[in-house]
Amino acid sequence: MTALRLFSAAIIPVTIVASMSGYGIENRYNVFIPYVPTPEFIVDRMLEMAEIGKDDLLLDLGSGDGRIVIAAAQRYGARGRGVEIDPKLVEESKENARKVGVDHLAEFVAQDMFVAKMADASVLSLYVLTASNLELRPRILSEMKPGSRVVSHQFSMGAWIADKQESYGDIQIYMWYVPARVAGTWRLDDGKRTYMLTIEQSYQDIGGTMKIGDRTLPLRLTKLRGAEIDFAVDLGEERPIVYRGRVSDGIMEPRPSPGAVPGWRAVRITAPVQEIK
Ligand SMILES: C[S@@+](CC[C@H](N)C(=O)[O-])C[C@H]1O[C@@H](n2cnc3c(N)ncnc32)[C@H](O)[C@@H]1O
User: Which residues have any ligand 1 atom within 6 Å of their CB?
Assistant: First the structure.
């Protein structure tokens, strides 16, 4: 039986397994997430897909024996924190980190992942069922910084489609960039004129319009990757007018980029009643 089948077979309502596990009983999400370690070559690919580096802080929610956090520290010098509900696995992880000399980079805590802090992590790794990913998704989108990477072994994020996906037999790896929240109306000023920009957003997919004089033009060539946003408007001239910006706290400013409009700034003036989650 493959790890995936073993995992699937173990998705049992928590009420049934609570007495066996000793951990699930506190889990209000009604699923028991068993301990199934990620194969080492999948750990390698997860870290590569997340483009982890020494400046990252990796958070592994449901960290098992600590292998993902330890690999990130050993191979990339990245700091990491594993959050694991089973205290025996937490002790084993600490021992594993100590044995390979990365205990100064790798921290392990016995905690329920659903209440664990995630705002300081720049990379989040998961191997915890789609239902759990969906429970975590609103917090990932609101608490993690735009541009942070999320990598999941096997399980998707539902409607939030992955930015990268790889398959190895029946194993899947998904990777997402946390998108900035850009939906709403913006006032864009280029030093000479002011334009009204309206952006609609579904995770990293964006569209919208820009009002230029009495014309309302659709945004073209749109792209949102983390805090980096691109869009263009076509005025019927030889080339569309291209904006490449960076978003931070409701302000959009240009990223230096050949062929793109320099010297503009946009301010978000209204946000949707409900942000993406
Ligand atoms: C499939 S294993 C993944 C282990 C490790 N991340 C890896 O990929 O090798 C899932 C882990 O989540 C832990 N877990 C289950 N429910 C949890 C919860 N509510 N909070 C924290 N950890 C939990 C399990 O004990 C198990 O070790």
Answer: 27, 33, 35-38, 60, 62-64, 67-68, 83-86, 89, 112-114, 127-128, 153
